[in-house]
What we know:
By secondary structure, chain B is mainly α. Chain B has helices at residues 2-35, 40-43, 57-65, 68-100, 103-114, 118-130, 137-161, 165-173, 178-189, 191-207, 210-215, 223-226, 238-273; strands spanning 231-232, 235-236. Chain B has a single domain (66-273), classed as MetI-like (MetI-like fold, Orthogonal Bundle), CATH 1.10.3720.10. Chain B contains 13 helices and 2 strands, in the order H-H-H-H-H-H-H-H-H-H-H-H-E-E-H. Chain C folds into 2 domains: 2-143 and 306-329, 3-Layer(aba) Sandwich (D-Maltodextrin-Binding Protein, domain 2); 145-303 and 370-423, Periplasmic binding protein-like II (D-Maltodextrin-Binding Protein, domain 2).
Amino acid sequence: MLSRWIDRHEKWVFTFPSLFFVVIMMVFPLGYTIWNSMTNWTLTAKTPTAFIGFRNYVQMFAEDPRFLQSIVRTFAFTIGSLIFQMIVGVGAGILIDSKEYRGRKILNSILLLPMMATPVAVAMVWLLILEPTTGVANYLLKQIGLPVSKFLSGTNTVIPTFILIDTWEWAPLITLITLAGLASLPHDPFESAKVDGAGPLQVVWHITLPMLVPTISVGALLRFIDCFKTFDIIYTMTTGGPGYASETINIYTYQNAFYYFKFGYASSMLVIFFAIVLGTVLFVTYTRKKLEV
Amino acid sequence: MTQKIRKWVGNAVYFAIVFLLLMLFLSPFLWMVYCSFKTPIELSKLPVNWLKGLTLDNYNKVFVQQNFFKFIKNSLIVAGGSTIFGLILGLPAAFAIARHSMKKASMLILVSRMMPGITFLLPLYIMFRQIGIVDTYLSLILSHMLTGLPFIIWLMTPFFESIPKDLVEAAIVDGAGSMTAFLRVVLPLSVPGIVTASILSFTFSWNNFMFSIVLATNKTRTVPVAIYNFISYASIDWGGLMAAATVITIPILILAITTQRYVIRGMTAGAVKG
Amino acid sequence: MKKLCLLIVLVLLLASMTAAIAQDKPFAGQTIRVVLANHAWTDAVAPILSRFEEETGIKVEWESYGEEQLNQKLTTEFIAGKAGIDVFMTRPLQEGANMEMNGWYQDLKDYVSKDAEYDFEDFTEASRSAVTFNGTITAIPLVTEQEILYYRKDILEEKGIAVPTTMEELYAAAEALNDPDNDFYGFVARGQRSPLVTQLSAYIYSYGGDWFDRDTYTATLNTPETLAGIEMYSNLLRNFGPPGVLNMHWAQCIGIFNEKKVALYTDASSLYPNLLDPTKSDVADVTGCAVFPAGPEGSVSYDITAWGLAMYGESENKDAAWEFIRWATSRENSLYIQGEKAQQLARTSVWADPEGIKSFPADWAAAVAGTINAKSYDRPLITAVTEARDIIGGVVVTAIEGGDFEAVADEANAQFQSLLDLEK
């Protein structure tokens, strides 16, 4: 009986627990945030909390250059990281795949480490390495005669440094996805290209890469969301500094909520933040579908 | 002859590049492990005096003074719990979504992945306080599932899609209910995917910092938060910090090495179908 | 009958004995939750905690967090209500005004006044006024600190430069010692936006500046005096500081100092173990301490109560909580914590006792004792402290980068004023 009932409603019986969990865990926080976003709830203010409509949103865009800058910065970091780790990740994947030898398994294990390691722990290590005066990175650069950098301590170098760190952490994921994609590709196009006398670079450019696109784009989308939300490493290493040079939306929001205790204002930022991510993901999925058709 | 030399040179260049690449990815870890064996004074000395100032003191701090065993246990419980519950909820959902192409349901679950974590901090704390589970593992497990569960579904849906429909239909025609078909036919075929999903969900939870910082109490403090024990008001213990970082990454390192075959096979199924 | 009598006597005896024991341990069976910061004070108290538990029968649930995490944790728990916290560590200057306004502190006035033996008057007047907000005693002062000058004795001696006592001498010495080609720098101090503000304070005070006028609530970030202090601080860092000073908190400053790469350093006195303890520092034997250099207004450092021990207003075990605070900050324990563990506490009697100052290095103690005429705050004393610090820090960051900081200061002053307007 029960089994028959389950069969009939399989679609919902199977998904209900997950949906229930997600909805319960999301509805209250989301509703709470949206409600707060329309109040001036600030712990440090003497005035009682009141409903103020959309004034937070107006203030954010009209009177808060720090917020607007944080949006630009977040996109710069996200796009920079994405481009870098796609190039490094896919490049490394194709390179590793081009030869068969013993030890490939060890290679894969090593690739897994940066993304599996705890970001907070990793951030501490990078902090030690990248210290401009006492860190080992600048020491090595000097030894081989390259110019030193301020890395996380320069207003112009901090975002590029975070891009490098994020690339170090996540390019291996793209590499693994690439390797997986390559393993599943059909052999025929490569055979015929060889017969046609195409060089290895031409094969990569004209055959391998186009065939990899669907595979990699999944990884890219996931990486986009996570890059945009990057928190741990920035919080641990600079908390948005020097000055405000690495203050992303996430960090600025956290500052507003847990340092300034402006919960109302921070909530309205979260709503905008969420809207940006959602919008971008929808846009990407939509255009991808169009392209596939 | 020249052919041979060219091949040899080509190989040498290839392996040099691969080696360099690997060193780039590996060196921060090596540096971390090395620094964890140095005394505070020697730790930041440059040029490095490789054999001077080596000590086990930092590990003494981690395990004896700070009792990291407790934090590791906490992290194991939370990461294990959120993964197991995530699988119990996520696998059937992914199966149904795959079988019925439920775009809307999968979108809803993906949305929870897109919400910035900060959104949850205060509301979840208030919610958990109301139902009285703030000081328990359950509060951490539930919050970590917010990242783990959507990931499991996201990863498993294409995996289930790749299982031939006929197999499932055949099982159902044979008189098994869809629940039985799922448990007896689909799940055994999906072991590599499940292992992957588990490992990654476990890792996400193990590494989670933001939820733990607000929701964990002294009893339930997990390792990423515990690492901050080495930073105090007027002193920072880099040696202890590096030892703690090493201790935290070792379980993950072991996990990665022992299961990498599954991880990569699982990734194939997950990513290629996209 | 006799037997019964005996039994009754026995029972009575037993009962009175138990009562006596209960009298000894009036709190037996109670548990309090104590939330503290990762701090040397916490480390000093942890090992003797069992004594308290034995004496009183109170079980102490003990947890500690990093400085910022602690504030966030406490705030989250307090907002959610019924936090189940009894005692917590707090920074009067940072969150004192705000937490007091939100009613999270238990006023300790009655507790300290009914307890003559405890002798609250023994705490320095400055520290007592630091923990008092609107007449409420929000916490018991724990550790105090001042801004002082750390310097490399050997380097100054080698170059024949006297220990700077004025701003001009400080600047000249930093200039003379600066040698970036050889990776050696004249001066270092905090350059991170928010952390730098507290160490900037003594500079602007010594030039006669301040954050705002406390009578009229008028921001004074762009007055000539304040700007002069900012200019001195940022010029020192820009011209003679190590690269990357903008990401430096005290930890990075100390790292560089201990790597023998810098000669002069101004920061909080509480940091001295990092520089003067030979197990932590290579330059322990050649590091000197001096009173903060004088500006036109003399040497006006800060003398602050960095941490206090507070009771949660909604604590359900207030008497037990007070028992703990009383014990932890008692004269006896203060003598132990300051004398043996070298923490800078606030009890006058402990400072007067030779046992109480035996662990302090001589010139450090002299520098601290020489810090007179200091202000009791190192950041603006308002509820929105963090926001104010960011606003002020932004001016200094601009100045260190060589930007038009006077224009930025005007802007910052207006922003700061609007914060002040909310507080009037």
